[in-house]
């Protein structure tokens, strides 16, 4: 998606340790006009698919998922990272290992909002090691719903997540795949640029 | 907002301790078509106001804020509840006391995304004791931005937050104000219904 790649080139900041900061438009400050274009692109890529629910994970996936959902006219469910008093006991649970935060946490979704008959599209902002996406896929499987595919805004193509998800048979659409970043020059190479 | 009140009456569940569960359409599963109508209503109520940024708080405020922002064509910034590695040190911080979770937590926003010249609308799903909204208002004040007002989807009118926020001079627009709930009969009385 050219508009997105241009935005990443313009406003993304490369930090030590292969960190790509895009918090000026994607995951702290959020450009919802861009999100709308992202929604249209996911709708185009999944035009052939039957989807009746979008599943994402708090916190930074929620905004994108909600704007994307307006293109599909389906509800969004977000997996919560910690059990709170506001969710009753009847939940599906999965474990996610976070490299960013150096810990493992539970994600949960109430059983009443995911189940047999649901055709689910996963949406998230980033795909790196793929642990969050695997956790979401596990929730879908546990619920008996059908996993239609996953839509990712930015995939870090030099990390293992994308390959692992594709190898597992999940249909994965990433709108921008970063193959390499150079902190010194500030250069970002996207997968499509290789052609 | 009649559409919202009807939805609360139909799908809201009253639980012991004056808990109103609306997680089937507002804050776990999210009906983004309803959110769009909510966005139009906030746009109508703040039609006279100049707004160039929406500020909300993770997690359940984000989805609503992003869909509302599409009506205003302004970016959304969400306050984070815990410092993560992904945010640099240059942040505004405020403390929020949570009755739901029985603890006090920090909320933060990066200084680069809030500051003098910003005209800020606060958006959140619920207003009860008002602590989250007060924390967001404190972030706006610390940043030197102008606080234009606050838009709340559901205000619990029998708790102290709404009165406290109004008394502090903040322009508050709540789309549904619940004045009382009866667990046994399942009856919800909204403030407008009194007329």
Residue runs with pLDDT of under 50 for 5 or more positions of chain A: none
Q: Give me the side-by-side strand order of the main sheet of chain A.
A: 5-4-8-9-10-11
Overall pLDDT score of chain A: 94
Q: Assembly state here?
A: homodimer
List keywords for this structure.
homodimer, six-stranded mixed β-sheet, globular, alpha/beta, 195 residues, two-stranded antiparallel ribbon
Short summary:
Two copies of one chain form a homodimer. Chain A is built from five helices and eleven strands; from the N terminus they run αβββαβαββββαβαββ.
Describe the structure.
The structure is a homodimer of 195-residue chains. Chain A is 29% helix and 35% strand. Chain A has 195 residues and is of the alpha/beta class. The first copy, chain A, starts with a helix and ends in a 5-residue tail after the last strand. Chain A has 5 helices and 11 strands, in the order αβββαβαββββαβαββ. In chain A, helix 4 (131-143) links the parallel strand 8 (119-127) and strand 9 (146-156). In chain A, helix 2 crosses helix 3 (60-72). Chain A has helices spanning 2-11, 32-45, 60-72, 131-143, 161-167, and strands at 13-15, 19-21, 29-30, 53-57, 76-79, 91-98, 103-110, 119-127, 146-156, 172-182, 187-190. At the A-B interface, strand 3, helix 2, helix 3 and strand 5 of A face strand 3, helix 2, helix 3 and strand 5 of B. Strand 3 of chain A pairs antiparallel with strand 5 (76-79) of chain B, so a sheet runs across the interface.
């Amino acid at each position: 998606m050219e508009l997105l790649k241009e935005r990443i080139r313009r406003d993304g900041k490369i930090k030590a340790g292969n960190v790509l900061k895009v918090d000026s438009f994607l995951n702290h400050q959020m450009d919802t006009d861009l999100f709308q274009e992202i929604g249209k692109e996911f709708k185009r890529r999944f035009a052939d698919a039957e989807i009746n629910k979008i599943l994402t994970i708090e916190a930074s996936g929620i905004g994108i998922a909600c704007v994307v959902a307006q293109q599909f006219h389906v509800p969004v469910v977000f997996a919560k990272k910690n059990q709170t008093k506001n969710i009753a006991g009847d939940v599906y649970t999965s474990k996610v290992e976070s490299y960013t935060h150096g810990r493992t946490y539970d994600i949960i979704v109430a059983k009443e909002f995911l189940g047999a008959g649901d055709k689910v599209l996963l949406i998230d902002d980033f795909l790196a090691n793929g642990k969050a996406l695997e956790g979401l896929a596990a929730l879908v499987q546990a619920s008996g719903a059908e996993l239609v595919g996953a839509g990712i805004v930015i995939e870090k193509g030099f990390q293992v997540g994308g390959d692992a998800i594709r190898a597992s048979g999940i249909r994965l659409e990433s709108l921008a795949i970063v193959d390499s970043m150079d902190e010194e020059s500030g250069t970002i190479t996207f997968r499509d640029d290789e052609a």
